[in-house]
Write a structure and sequence with these properties.
Elements (H helix, E strand, L loop, with lengths): L1 H13 L6 E4 L7 H4 L1 E6 L17 E7 L2 E6 L5 H4 L6 H9 L4 E10 L9 E9 L24 H14 L3 E8 L8 H10 L3 E3 L3 H9 L3 E11 L10 H25 L1
Parallel strand pairs: 1-4, 1-5, 5-9, 6-7, 7-8
Antiparallel strand pairs: 2-3, 3-4, 5-8, 6-9
Helix pairs in contact: 1-4, 5-8
Bound molecules: hypoxanthine (HPA).
C-alpha cells in the first residue's frame, strides 16, 4: 500500500522518473545526495518511509543523474535497532525497484577487525554473517521469502568495483561484514567470537537491506567505510560521535569509487 502511495507522490512531483541503480547511504555518508543533479523528497512526505532516524543520516530520497546515470539515492536508513523492525527499509526498497532500479548499492560505516583495513579505508563486502538472528522477511507470506543468498553481493559488480578502485588509486579490500543488532556497540568478546566465525568487520545495517533487495530481484553490492577498529582491537573510544567524525575520511574515496563505477555502467 505505502509503496503505491509513495510512488504517487513521486510521480506527481517528477512525472514518471526512472532509476537504473539505487543507493543507500550510511552514517556520515549522506553528502552524496548533494552530488546528484536532481530533485529531493523528504521521507516525511513519502508514506511508509522511515521518519526521523539517526543523527548523521540525511532523510531524503534524491532522484536524478550522477555521472550521466539515472540514480535514486536514499540519503538515510532506518535501522533494526530503532523500533525492532528488520524490514524498516522495505517500502523504500520496493520504491527503488518500482522506479526500475535493478541494482542496490549499499554503504555503511563499520568497525574493522583487520589491521590491513584500518579507519578511513573502504571494505568491499564479499559476503555477510547475520549475527542478529533476524530477517526482514519474517512474516512475508509468499514462498518468495525463501531467498537464496549465494552470491548475494553480486560477483560481477564486485569485480568491476575492484577494477575501478585500482584505476582510481583507491585501496579496496574485500571482507565479510557481520550484522550486529545494536544500538549498543559490541563487547570485545563478541568481536573475538565474530572473528573466529569468519567476519572481517561489524556494523548495524545493510544486511536486512541486501536480503530485501535480493527478495525484490535486485542485484546487490555494498561498500563499508571503516570508522574504527572494532571493540577491543583499537585504542580509540568507540562512539556514534566518533563514527560521524571519521566517516568523511572514507567518504571522499567512496564518492570517487561510486563515480568511477557509474561511468562503467
Ligand atoms: N560496531 C558496529 N557498528 C559500527 C561500528 C562498530 O564498531 N563502527 C561503525 N559502525
Amino acid at each position: 500500500m505505502s509503496t503505491q502511495e509513495s510512488l504517487k507522490v513521486i510521480n506527481a512531483r517528477l512525472g514518471k522518473p526512472k532509476a537504473r541503480i539505487g543507493f543507500i547511504l550510511g552514517s556520515g555518508l549522506g553528502h552524496l545526495t548533494e552530488a546528484v543533479d536532481g530533485i529531493s523528497i523528504n521521507y516525511d512526505d513519502l508514506p511508509g518511509f522511515p521518519q526521523a532516524g539517526v543523527s548523521g543520516h540525511a532523510v531524503k530520497l534524491v532522484l536524478g543523474k550522477l555521472e550521466g546515470v539515472d540514480v535514486a539515492v536514499l540519503g538515510g536508513r532506518a535501522h533494526f535497532y530503532e523500533k525492532g523492525q528488520a524490514d524498516a527499509m522495505r517500502v523504500p526498497l520496493e520504491v527503488l525497484a518500482a522506479l526500475g532500479a535493478n541494482q542496490l548499492f549499499a554503504t555503511n560505516a563499520c568497525g574493522s577487525f583487520r589491521s590491513d583495513i584500518p579507519p578511513g579505508e573502504l571494505m568491499l563486502i564479499a559476503d555477510h554473517i547475520n549475527f542478529s538472528g533476524r530477517s526482514p522477511l519474517i512474516g512475508e507470506p509468499t514462498d518468495s521469502r525463501f531467498v537464496n543468498l549465494v552470491d548475494a553481493y553480486d560477483p560481477a559488480t564486485r569485480t568491476i568495483l575492484m577494477e575501478v578502485a585500482a584505476k582510481e588509486g583507491i585501496t579496496l579490500k574485500e571482507g565479510v561484514y557481520a550484522w550486529y543488532s545494536g544500538p549498543n556497540f559490541e563487547t570485545p568478546a563478541e568481536i573475538r567470537a565474530l572473528k573466529i566465525l569468519g567476519a572481517d568487520a561489524v556494523g548495524m545495517s545493510t544486511v536486512p537491506e541486501v536480503i530485501l533487495a535480493r527478495f525484490l530481484g535486485m542485484k546487490a553490492c555494498g561498500v563499508s567505510v571503516v570508522t574504527n577498529m572494532a571493540a577491543g582491537l583499537g585504542y580509540e573510544q568507540i562512539s556514534h560521535e566518533h563514527t560521524k567524525a571519521m566517516a568523511p575520511l572514507g567518504a571522499t574515496k567512496l564518492e570517487k569509487l561510486i563515480r568511477g563505477f557509474l561511468r562503467r555502467l
